[in-house]
Amino acid sequence: MVKLDGDLDPLWQDLDWAIGQMVIMGWDGTEVTPQIRHLIEEHHLGSILLTAKNLKSAHQTAKLVQELQTIAHQAGHLQPLLIALDQENGGVNSLYDEDYICQFPSAMGQAAAGNADLAYKVAKATATEVSAVGVNLILGPVLDVLTNARYQPLGVRAVGDDPQEVSQYGIAAMNGYKDAGVATCGKHFPSYGNLDFLGSSLDVPIITQTLEELSLSALVPFRNAIATGKLDAMFVGGCGITNPSMNVNHACLSDQVVDDLLRNELGFTGVAISECLEMEALRSEIGVKTGTVMAVEAGCDLVLLCRAYDVQLEAIAGLKLGVENELLTKERIYTSLRRVLRMKNACTSWAKALNPPGISLLSKIHPSHLNLSIKAYDDSITVIRDNEKLLPLNESMHQEEELLLLTPLVKPLPASSLTKNILEAKNKSDSAPSEHDKWIHRDRGVIMSGEGVFRELGRSLARARRGKLLHTSYTANGVRPVHENLIHRASCIVIVTADANRNLYQAGFTKHVSMMCSMLRASGQKKSLVVVAVSSPYDFAMDKSIGTCICTFDFTEMAMAALVRALCGSSRARGTLPGTLRKSRKAVKSRQHWLVEPYDRDRDSNGLNDLLSALARAAAPNHRFLTTTTAHSFEIFNPNIEESHFVVRNSSTQALYGFCATYHTQGTGIIGAIFVDPTKRNVAIGRSLHRRALRALIQKRGTKKIQLGICFPGVFLGIPTDDGGLKTWFSNSGWDLQFPRRLANMVIADLSSWSAPEGLLQSIQRANMSFDLIHGLENAETVLAHVAGNANPEVFELYRLALQETKSCGVVRAKCQRGGLVGTVVICSPGSPVAGYVPALQGGEEVLVGGIIAPVVAPGNGDLLVIQGLALMGLRQNKAHKSGRSVLSWVGEEGMEGLGAMGWEVLEGWEEFTNSVENWQDLA
């Protein structure tokens, strides 16, 4: 028998209990059925997936979840059930309750709002609400990149087609979920963003991209989310993969996808969840028993079986048979068990599971969440084009003119108060059914057809403009006589489309109406046309023949209310197109110039801190230094370094859109940082700041060269080596980037376990080098002379500051056999004033960070040994200061290999550049 480690309870020796933790199951119905009870009590089912078919209201959901947890508790489960839910917002919400659960825009709608902080708040609000009713795992965020955006079924469920933007908003959502105490599950690995649909309905869609192509695009958000360490689970899709290096029928059943790609290459250590194995293609091809075993063999920890009780029993039997047949080892079972239990420990407990706050909490937070919902929807509404200046309608139409609304018949989305009111009215009356009854799905009271939502949209439009409105629907039958008659009557026509790229009749109908309007305008009639895409912006984004086009990203009632406000002018449509659509549009505006102002500490410091927080949330995990950077990091107040900082700001809101830090000393002008709000990129803010900064530096007396990157303050030592986009940007801005000085911040993460490499001390002794530590300026003449002769002037000022801080800083000197100075380095104790200028030295409350800053070594044959000796002495001082981690900042390329041999690892890599002022003669 496998020996269990001490971290597992003896109960898990019973493999039936362990196997029960490896499946996640659901059922149809709003009450606990004998079947789901039997799975929990007798088969020890540890995870439940709830869907819209289980949920009627917040109160009912809280009661249902509490009952499920009580059953598990009484059945002897050591830990609560995982309760999972799809709650993506937009058109994908399993739980809706108009009184307590708020509706928010889809992922693409949130990205259109252009504010990652707003996406974080929406995610946190969503998770807080579902957590209140007992849900502890959200199946999200969606991390798919829409490589072929127009024809993919995910549509607005995904952020867009830009991998970095998908990463930014995916990580923001993930952080929101986590901060609300809910576990996260990225999906749909390796990608549902570019699927080819081939063959019959039994065939699975196929990924045809190579691994290299996937790595450059589709895998980027998954890799970045994993690198944060905050992704608890990964949902592995059921798609096939066909390329020269991989031929996989079902991704979630392939060890090439799960074990090799997800775990070994991307480094994911959390819970892998399979696609639902009840899918028809898998059942008919492999069978559920074998499929379940294959999923676990591939590396999945939780196998999903959505609702069929007989199939669920078959899957459990398959896992047991897999162990009996020695296809699954007990070690493999316990590996998955530990992962699942670790996730449960992080997101739930019996105290929390058995006593969810429920309605008492939801009623308190609902007003603020509703305001957030309204803001999110208003900010997401996007005007794609308005060539004829038709928006808002109250400025382009007279009140007495007739407005025609043409809407398609579409699949239903979760509704809100409208459906509720219709049902209540129906129950109170025995009269003949109204026309509204035709819009309600008979099997689900909380679902209303799109036509019903659009009917209310028409009424709201009529009320908002206080004018006459005509409304009818259209179908695949095209433009009928009724449509022609109404078009002739109306002055303005609003056509609604929903995924016209996949519902081609909508595109054809819209083009036909557009042609009619053009012909009628040519005859002298007023015929304005506004197209509203209520789902994908790709419907007419690239079709310039449609002069006015607006997108809402979903057609929930909240979205339609925001649309009415935008159409009628009570709010301004602020949204932007996702990904490359936005960038291609904004490229035309590259000559835009922004007002650049001097930085004012009193006015701008709060705005700069907000900007830095937004950048930290949007940055890749290896740029963690941004999390500890503040407005004060850039102000050094040094009499020998002239500093001038610049901002682009919104003078109305005081928000900073961009910031640039510059310094000047001894003929060298230095750009120390350029920041642009992630939601305001590609509109020339950075270019405006860069140009103003260069002009200011070049015009200073005696400027001979311009430097990009600075070690004092050490926020950006140059261009990050992992950001090719920034390098291209600076190259296009006039910089010669051929000859970089490569620098790094290096770290020993666990100083307590570090020891000097064998033989290093003996090598130093054989070289007859000696080291000492000095404090204060009175002993520092030789040190400052050495630094002045071998380093940049700002490094000299860093040393001068360190020597003045006698209580917290010192300088280690390295001397050769003859007593001459051959090297120096600054030593900082944790929390020293000097460390405040180097974000990499900020450890927070978790760990004390000792600093070893700016090693300066005179050129010579033994300079590598000098650097190693200085680092060794610095580490001893850091240990003496009780540091748990040591960071070595501003290390040149020549020393990295030798320091790596000592156990140092690169924390951040940089390239510093210095150019002549002649590069920018036009600014002189």
TrEMBL record:
This is Glycoside hydrolase family 3 N-terminal domain-containing protein. It holds the Pfam family Glyco_hydro_3. Keywords: Glycoprotein, Glycosidase, Hydrolase. Residues 16-342 form the Glycoside hydrolase family 3 N-terminal domain. InterPro entries: Acyl_CoA_acyltransferase (IPR016181), GH (IPR017853), Glyco_hydro_3_C_sf (IPR036881), Glyco_hydro_3_N (IPR001764), Glyco_hydro_3_N_sf (IPR036962), NagZ_Beta-hexosaminidase (IPR050226). Belongs to the glycosyl hydrolase 3 family. The keyword Hydrolase applies.
